[in-house]
Protein backbone atom coordinates (compact mmCIF):
# COMPACT_ATOMS: atom_id res chain seq x y z
CA UNK A 1 0.00 0.00 0.00
CA UNK A 2 1.37 3.40 -1.00
CA UNK A 3 0.09 6.43 0.93
CA UNK A 4 0.84 9.92 -0.45
CA UNK A 5 0.59 12.88 1.92
CA UNK A 6 1.06 16.37 0.47
CA UNK A 7 0.54 19.89 1.75
CA UNK A 8 2.15 23.24 2.54
CA UNK A 9 4.63 24.03 5.32
CA UNK A 10 3.52 23.15 8.88
CA UNK A 11 0.11 21.89 7.74
CA UNK A 12 0.71 18.73 9.79
CA UNK A 13 1.55 16.42 6.90
CA UNK A 14 4.69 15.04 8.58
CA UNK A 15 2.85 14.30 11.82
CA UNK A 16 0.02 12.60 9.92
CA UNK A 17 2.40 10.67 7.62
CA UNK A 18 4.43 9.35 10.57
CA UNK A 19 1.29 8.26 12.41
CA UNK A 20 -0.09 6.53 9.30
CA UNK A 21 3.23 4.72 8.84
CA UNK A 22 3.02 3.49 12.44
CA UNK A 23 -0.64 2.53 12.09
CA UNK A 24 -0.12 0.51 8.90
CA UNK A 25 3.40 -0.63 9.81
CA UNK A 26 4.94 0.93 6.68
CA UNK A 27 8.27 2.70 6.14
CA UNK A 28 8.06 6.51 5.94
CA UNK A 29 10.00 9.08 3.93
CA UNK A 30 9.88 12.83 4.62
CA UNK A 31 10.82 14.01 1.10
CA UNK A 32 11.22 17.62 2.29
CA UNK A 33 14.37 16.45 4.07
CA UNK A 34 15.98 15.59 0.72
CA UNK A 35 15.44 19.14 -0.57
CA UNK A 36 16.60 20.53 2.78
CA UNK A 37 19.78 18.40 2.53
CA UNK A 38 20.45 19.83 -0.95
CA UNK A 39 19.90 23.34 0.42
CA UNK A 40 22.21 22.82 3.41
CA UNK A 41 24.88 21.43 1.07
CA UNK A 42 24.57 24.44 -1.25
CA UNK A 43 25.10 26.64 1.77
CA UNK A 44 28.01 24.66 3.19
CA UNK A 45 29.85 24.64 -0.14
CA UNK A 46 28.99 28.32 -0.69
CA UNK A 47 27.31 27.55 -4.00
CA UNK A 48 24.72 29.81 -5.67
CA UNK A 49 21.17 28.44 -5.04
CA UNK A 50 19.78 30.42 -7.98
CA UNK A 51 22.14 28.59 -10.38
CA UNK A 52 20.67 25.29 -11.47
CA UNK A 53 24.09 23.66 -12.05
CA UNK A 54 25.25 24.62 -8.53
CA UNK A 55 22.07 23.21 -6.96
CA UNK A 56 22.37 20.00 -9.02
CA UNK A 57 25.95 19.51 -7.79
CA UNK A 58 24.58 19.57 -4.21
CA UNK A 59 22.11 16.73 -4.96
CA UNK A 60 24.97 14.33 -4.43
CA UNK A 61 24.91 15.27 -0.72
CA UNK A 62 26.54 13.24 2.05
CA UNK A 63 23.86 10.94 3.61
CA UNK A 64 24.91 12.12 7.08
CA UNK A 65 23.51 15.56 6.15
CA UNK A 66 20.00 14.08 6.50
CA UNK A 67 20.49 13.85 10.28
CA UNK A 68 21.88 17.40 10.68
CA UNK A 69 19.64 19.50 13.00
CA UNK A 70 20.41 22.56 10.83
CA UNK A 71 17.97 21.11 8.27
CA UNK A 72 15.10 22.16 10.56
CA UNK A 73 15.95 25.87 10.43
CA UNK A 74 13.79 28.41 8.64
CA UNK A 75 16.71 29.59 6.48
CA UNK A 76 17.31 26.08 5.17
CA UNK A 77 13.55 25.74 4.52
CA UNK A 78 13.57 28.89 2.39
CA UNK A 79 16.71 27.78 0.58
CA UNK A 80 15.11 24.36 0.00
CA UNK A 81 12.18 26.02 -1.68
CA UNK A 82 14.60 27.94 -3.97
CA UNK A 83 16.65 24.91 -5.00
CA UNK A 84 13.57 22.68 -5.36
CA UNK A 85 12.22 24.91 -8.14
CA UNK A 86 15.04 23.82 -10.49
CA UNK A 87 13.72 21.03 -12.76
CA UNK A 88 17.13 19.27 -12.78
CA UNK A 89 17.19 19.17 -8.97
CA UNK A 90 13.76 17.53 -8.94
CA UNK A 91 14.92 15.10 -11.64
CA UNK A 92 18.02 14.20 -9.61
CA UNK A 93 15.90 13.26 -6.56
CA UNK A 94 13.09 11.54 -8.49
CA UNK A 95 14.38 7.95 -8.78
CA UNK A 96 15.23 7.72 -5.07
CA UNK A 97 11.71 8.80 -4.07
CA UNK A 98 9.98 6.57 -6.64
CA UNK A 99 12.04 3.60 -5.49
CA UNK A 100 11.09 4.26 -1.87
CA UNK A 101 7.40 4.57 -2.75
CA UNK A 102 7.34 1.40 -4.85
CA UNK A 103 9.29 -0.89 -2.51
CA UNK A 104 7.69 -4.28 -1.75
CA UNK A 105 4.93 -3.88 0.84
CA UNK A 106 4.50 -0.15 0.21
CA UNK A 107 5.37 3.07 2.00
CA UNK A 108 4.15 6.41 3.28
CA UNK A 109 5.73 9.55 1.78
CA UNK A 110 5.05 13.18 2.55
CA UNK A 111 5.96 16.25 0.53
CA UNK A 112 4.53 18.50 -2.15
CA UNK A 113 4.27 16.29 -5.26
CA UNK A 114 3.85 12.74 -3.95
CA UNK A 115 0.28 12.23 -5.18
CA UNK A 116 0.91 14.05 -8.45
CA UNK A 117 4.45 13.07 -9.56
CA UNK A 118 6.22 10.56 -7.29
CA UNK A 119 3.33 8.11 -6.84
CA UNK A 120 0.30 9.09 -8.95
CA UNK A 121 -0.67 5.41 -8.52
CA UNK A 122 -0.84 5.67 -4.70
CA UNK A 123 -3.59 3.67 -2.98
CA UNK A 124 -4.48 6.62 -0.77
CA UNK A 125 -3.74 10.32 -1.16
CA UNK A 126 -4.22 13.06 1.41
CA UNK A 127 -3.80 16.77 0.91
CA UNK A 128 -3.26 18.38 4.31
CA UNK A 129 -3.93 22.07 4.80
CA UNK A 130 -4.38 24.70 7.52
CA UNK A 131 -4.63 28.49 7.47
CA UNK A 132 -1.31 30.37 7.07
CA UNK A 133 -1.78 31.99 10.52
CA UNK A 134 -2.20 28.65 12.25
CA UNK A 135 0.70 27.08 10.34
CA UNK A 136 2.94 30.04 11.28
CA UNK A 137 1.91 29.70 14.91
CA UNK A 138 2.83 26.01 14.90
CA UNK A 139 6.14 26.52 13.11
CA UNK A 140 7.00 29.47 15.38
CA UNK A 141 6.40 27.36 18.51
CA UNK A 142 8.47 24.57 17.02
CA UNK A 143 11.40 26.88 16.19
CA UNK A 144 11.23 28.47 19.65
CA UNK A 145 11.35 25.07 21.31
CA UNK A 146 14.60 24.48 19.42
CA UNK A 147 16.07 27.71 20.78
CA UNK A 148 15.37 30.03 17.84
CA UNK A 149 14.44 33.68 18.56
CA UNK A 150 12.84 34.32 15.16
CA UNK A 151 9.66 36.46 15.35
CA UNK A 152 6.15 35.23 14.55
CA UNK A 153 5.79 37.84 11.79
CA UNK A 154 8.98 36.64 10.16
CA UNK A 155 7.80 33.01 10.24
CA UNK A 156 4.43 33.99 8.77
CA UNK A 157 6.11 36.00 5.98
CA UNK A 158 8.44 33.09 5.23
CA UNK A 159 5.54 30.63 5.10
CA UNK A 160 3.63 32.87 2.70
CA UNK A 161 6.70 33.34 0.48
CA UNK A 162 7.35 29.58 0.41
CA UNK A 163 3.66 28.77 -0.33
CA UNK A 164 3.75 31.21 -3.22
CA UNK A 165 7.02 29.86 -4.65
CA UNK A 166 6.07 26.18 -4.20
CA UNK A 167 2.65 26.63 -5.81
CA UNK A 168 3.80 28.72 -8.77
CA UNK A 169 6.91 26.85 -9.99
CA UNK A 170 6.54 25.20 -13.38
CA UNK A 171 7.83 21.72 -12.46
CA UNK A 172 5.81 19.68 -9.96
CA UNK A 173 4.14 22.63 -8.18
CA UNK A 174 2.39 22.13 -4.84
CA UNK A 175 -1.07 21.05 -5.92
CA UNK A 176 -3.81 18.77 -4.71
CA UNK A 177 -4.17 15.64 -6.87
CA UNK A 178 -7.67 15.26 -8.38
CA UNK A 179 -8.19 12.05 -6.44
CA UNK A 180 -6.79 13.24 -3.08
CA UNK A 181 -8.88 13.63 0.07
CA UNK A 182 -8.63 17.00 1.80
CA UNK A 183 -7.69 17.14 5.48
CA UNK A 184 -7.95 20.59 7.06
CA UNK A 185 -6.09 20.46 10.38
CA UNK A 186 -6.65 24.14 11.28
CA UNK A 187 -8.95 23.33 14.18
CA UNK A 188 -7.93 19.74 14.85
CA UNK A 189 -5.62 18.48 17.59
CA UNK A 190 -2.82 16.15 16.54
CA UNK A 191 -4.84 13.14 17.78
CA UNK A 192 -7.96 14.26 15.88
CA UNK A 193 -5.90 14.92 12.72
CA UNK A 194 -4.46 11.41 12.85
CA UNK A 195 -7.84 9.80 13.52
CA UNK A 196 -9.37 11.68 10.58
CA UNK A 197 -6.42 10.77 8.34
CA UNK A 198 -6.93 7.05 9.08
CA UNK A 199 -10.67 7.40 8.33
CA UNK A 200 -9.90 9.09 5.00
CA UNK A 201 -7.34 6.43 4.03
CA UNK A 202 -9.82 3.67 4.93
CA UNK A 203 -12.47 5.42 2.83
CA UNK A 204 -10.13 5.53 -0.16
CA UNK A 205 -9.16 1.86 0.24
CA UNK A 206 -12.84 0.87 0.34
CA UNK A 207 -13.50 2.96 -2.78
CA UNK A 208 -10.55 1.31 -4.60
CA UNK A 209 -11.92 -2.14 -3.76
CA UNK A 210 -15.34 -1.26 -5.16
CA UNK A 211 -13.74 0.17 -8.32
CA UNK A 212 -11.81 -3.07 -8.86
CA UNK A 213 -14.97 -5.23 -8.74
O1 LIG B 1 8.15 20.85 6.75
P1 LIG B 1 7.90 21.92 5.76
O2 LIG B 1 6.60 21.71 5.06
O3 LIG B 1 8.11 23.29 6.28
O4 LIG B 1 9.00 21.84 4.62
P2 LIG B 1 9.54 20.57 3.90
O5 LIG B 1 8.46 19.60 3.61
O6 LIG B 1 10.73 20.08 4.63
O7 LIG B 1 10.00 21.15 2.49
C1 LIG B 1 10.96 22.17 2.34
C2 LIG B 1 10.87 22.66 0.91
O8 LIG B 1 11.25 21.60 0.03
C3 LIG B 1 9.46 23.06 0.47
O9 LIG B 1 9.17 24.42 0.68
C4 LIG B 1 9.47 22.73 -1.03
O10 LIG B 1 9.96 23.82 -1.80
C5 LIG B 1 10.47 21.60 -1.15
N1 LIG B 1 9.81 20.30 -1.37
C6 LIG B 1 9.41 20.00 -2.65
O11 LIG B 1 9.55 20.82 -3.54
N2 LIG B 1 8.85 18.79 -2.94
C7 LIG B 1 8.68 17.88 -1.96
N3 LIG B 1 8.16 16.69 -2.28
C8 LIG B 1 9.05 18.19 -0.63
C9 LIG B 1 9.61 19.42 -0.36
O1 LIG C 1 5.23 18.30 8.02
P1 LIG C 1 4.61 19.67 8.14
O2 LIG C 1 5.60 20.76 7.96
O3 LIG C 1 3.42 19.84 7.27
O4 LIG C 1 4.04 19.81 9.61
P2 LIG C 1 4.35 18.98 10.94
O5 LIG C 1 5.81 18.96 11.19
O6 LIG C 1 3.64 17.68 10.91
O7 LIG C 1 3.62 19.89 12.01
C1 LIG C 1 4.09 21.19 12.32
C2 LIG C 1 3.85 21.45 13.81
O8 LIG C 1 2.45 21.55 14.04
C3 LIG C 1 4.37 20.34 14.71
O9 LIG C 1 4.95 20.92 15.84
C4 LIG C 1 3.10 19.57 15.07
O10 LIG C 1 3.21 18.97 16.33
C5 LIG C 1 2.05 20.67 15.07
N1 LIG C 1 0.67 20.22 14.78
C6 LIG C 1 -0.37 20.68 15.55
O11 LIG C 1 -0.13 21.46 16.49
N2 LIG C 1 -1.65 20.29 15.30
C7 LIG C 1 -1.95 19.47 14.29
N3 LIG C 1 -3.21 19.13 14.08
C8 LIG C 1 -0.90 19.01 13.46
C9 LIG C 1 0.41 19.39 13.73
TrEMBL record:
Keywords: ATP-binding, Cytoplasm, Kinase, Nucleotide-binding, Transferase. GO terms for molecular function: ATP binding; dCMP kinase activity. It is found in: Cytoplasm. Its EC number is 2.7.4.25. GO terms for biological process: pyrimidine nucleotide metabolic process. ATP binds at residues 7-15. It catalyses: CMP + ATP = CDP + ADP; dCMP + ATP = dCDP + ADP. The keyword Transferase applies. Its main location: cytoplasm. The keyword Kinase applies. Residues 3-202 form the Cytidylate kinase domain. Belongs to the cytidylate kinase family. Type 1 subfamily. HAMAP family: Cytidyl_kinase_type1. This is Cytidylate kinase. It comes from Sphingomonas aerophila.
Amino acid sequence: MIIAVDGPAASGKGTVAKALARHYNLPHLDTGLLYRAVAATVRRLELDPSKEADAVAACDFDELTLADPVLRSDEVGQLASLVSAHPLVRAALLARQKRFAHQPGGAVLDGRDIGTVIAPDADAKLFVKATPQIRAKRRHAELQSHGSTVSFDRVLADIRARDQRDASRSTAPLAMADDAALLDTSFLSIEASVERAIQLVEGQRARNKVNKL
